[in-house]
Target: Endolytic murein transglycosylase
Amino acid sequence: MDQTPPTDDTPAAPVQGRKRRAARRVLWLLTALVILAVIVGTPAWLAWRGFTGPSAIPERTTVLIEEGSGLGRIARQLEREGLVADALMFRLGVQAFGEASSLKAGEYEIPRHASMRQIMRILVDGKPILHPITLFEGMTSWEVVEHLKLQPVLTGTVPIVPAEGTLLPETYLVTRGTSRQEVIDRMQRAQAKLIDDLWDERAEGLPFTTIAEALVLASIVEKETGKGDERDKAASVFINRLERGMRLQSDPTIIYGITKGQGPLGRRIRRSEIDRATPWNTYQVDGLPPTPICNPGAAAIEAVLNPAETEYLFFVADGTGGHAFARTNREHERNVRKWRRIQRERGLR
Model:
């Protein structure tokens, strides 16, 4: 019986079938993995987009994070105030970035459409809103305390009105919640530093020897003129009078003796008040008063420590907001008559 020997190109059907089945299994496996990745990855992607994408915050707003607030409390507050859509998402996002313990208390400005990630960054960077508190040159310590009472961003009380002339009036930047006493402390430190910087550079031969005396005279200069180009000349008038043993005869010292710095006099000085002796009335006492009559600004302190070199002994208002200075009593009387004429023309008595 003849037999035909097998050849190399005989179809191997069983082998090819196994390969096709294996290919189908790989395809199904890949498909399943893709589906699983979509199922698992879609929420993660959505969460990422929710944390980093723009929010619905319609306009710039502020948020105040109180001291001691933890991540959970902050997240709930942000959700309650409409700054994040989901407190849990915010908390998980902050934890994912490793910033759970880095959020800082304070008052912050949140831009419109800020993402959760941006809000997180703002709270981590910890740069809170700064509010300007302006204390004006020439305010008395009582007036400073009363002014601070009216500032809603400040907290607490000032138990004791600070000594007159120990505060440096200027604009101070504070965060919401700063105590009023802390502002007072900053004003005192600022004045001490200013004096330290200026004292050794003072002019020679001044008729006072202590910082306390310099501040008394600076407070008088501050109350006498608010014009920057006059302070050193006004200072020279008082320096010259002290050197000659003349009384200072400054009207603001009379007023301080009446009010003790607790608000303005609100009227003109009476003749009887000029003649009445108080420790501050420089029409009645020789030399300097015992204390400053206000808190002088830096310019007045500088003017007293480095006054202009003049021969002026008098000055009076000139009707323009400034003063007319005089070397002699005769010149001064002429300036006084001119000022009184201006007052009459303005209907003043």
Remarks:
- The first strand starts at residue 61 and ends at 65.
